[in-house]
Amino acid sequence: MLVTVERLTKTYGKFTAVQDVSFVVHAGEIAGLVGPNGAGKTTIIHMMLGLISPNAGSVRLFGKSLETDREQILQRLNFTSPYMAFPVRLTVLENLRVFAGIYNVRDPAAKINELLEQFGIGRLKKKPMSRLSSGEITRVGLCKAFLNDPELLLLDEPTAYLDPQAAVQVRAVLLDLQKSRGTTILYTSHNMHEVERMCDRILFLSKGSIIATGTPIEVTCSILNEDRSAPALEEVFIRIAGRTPDEAVSN
Amino acid sequence: MKLYRIRSVIRRHTYEVIHNANHITYMVYWPVVNILVWGFFTLYLRHGDALKPGVVSCLLGAVILWGLFNAFQRDMAVGFLEELWSRNLVSLFASPLSVSEYVTGLIVVTLAKAMVGLSVGALIAWLFYHYDMFLMLPMLLPFILNLVLFAVAMGIVVTGLIFRYTTKFQAMAWSFAGILMPLSCVFYPLSSLPSFLRPIASILPTTQSFEGMREVIESGGFSISHFRLGLGLNLIYFIFAIFFFRWMFEAARSRGLLVKME
Question: How many structural domains comprise chain B?
Answer without folding.
Answer: 1
